[in-house]
Amino acid sequence: MRGIRSYSDPRGNPIPSSTKDGPIYLCTGVKTSFYPNSQSAFWCPLPVIMAQLNEIRGRLALITGASGGIGAACARQFAEKGVHLALTYSSNLTAINTLTEELKAASPDLRISTHQVDVGSAEQIQDMFLQIDKEHGQRPDILVSNAGYGKRVPQIWDITLEEFDYTINVNLRASFILAKGVVEHMRNQRWGRIIFMSSIAGYGGGINGCHYASSKGGMTGMMKNLSTRLAEFNISVNDVAPAMIGDTGMIPNAQAIPEVAAGIPLGRLGVPEEVANVVTMLATTGYMTGQSLLLAGGLK
């Protein structure tokens, strides 16, 4: 709805001159969620709405599985955008410390915490959230559920029940527990981003077995349900479904790379930074929700 121009926000802050040109819209409801103490409607330029809804500087992101590969690439990109970080790792203390030192050297004003967590343990996840509460004074605004597990067992007759249960536990159940741990904070502030790391396996492809495909397909189903349930709170929920990404353990050894790359339409492996590009786009594009983005070099 258009209205009379106003060059200050509800707190009395002047609107930058660069945004004064263009249509003015009545801001109310979810559109004013970035002013949590404002109850009344007001007139505001559309560029201001978009800038506030998609700004992630100063937010807190939780990235699981951040000691290397995709998780570390996401941490670097978020740090460049001024996002505070809570990073988890399972066992590689040297790698997570090296990453943290790198990020703090480049962005000394950021709060960065690290947490050793087995995401297959609900108790360890809950303890992690208590640590985050203490170190950051809040729950995460952005969740990147990246930590996962996938043992290559192609045939169902070779997959034990224990292997199936463990894979579901680490990939699907952990993402559910992580989402539950952040969603109340996101609801209260009417802003949030939840990004799951799925896989081409969730589409029926990939080189792992049905245990892994089930865990990733279930993740996409959960994402789509949550996206409809949480949209009214300005929480966007999406997943990224990569395939054949180098430096992630997806490829068994360096000798296998040429053969694997030959089967990809683009003729090469993806790199973690390309996955991080998509994650960053999702974090800064609140209008996108309920989408599973296949990043697979042309594989279907």
TrEMBL record:
Highest taxon in the source lineage: Eukaryota
Entries under SUPFAM superfamilies matching the protein: NAD(P)-binding Rossmann-fold domains
InterPro entries reported in the protein's UniProt record: NAD(P)-bd_dom_sf, Sc_DH/Rdtase_CS, SDR_fam
PROSITE patterns, A to Z: ADH_SHORT (PS00061)
Single GO MF annotation: oxidoreductase activity, acting on the CH-OH group of donors, NAD or NADP as acceptor
Gene3D superfamilies, A to Z: NAD(P)-binding Rossmann-like Domain
Gene Ontology terms describing biological process: fatty acid biosynthetic process; secondary metabolite biosynthetic process
Pfam family, one: adh_short
Keywords, alphabetical: NADP, Oxidoreductase
Family recorded in the similarity comment: Belongs to the short-chain dehydrogenases/reductases (SDR) family.
PANTHER family on file: 3-KETOACYL-ACYL CARRIER PROTEIN REDUCTASE-RELATED (PTHR42760:SF127), SHORT-CHAIN DEHYDROGENASES/REDUCTASES FAMILY MEMBER (PTHR42760)
Protein name, as recorded: 3-ketoacyl-acyl carrier protein reductase
Organism of derivation: Aspergillus puulaauensis
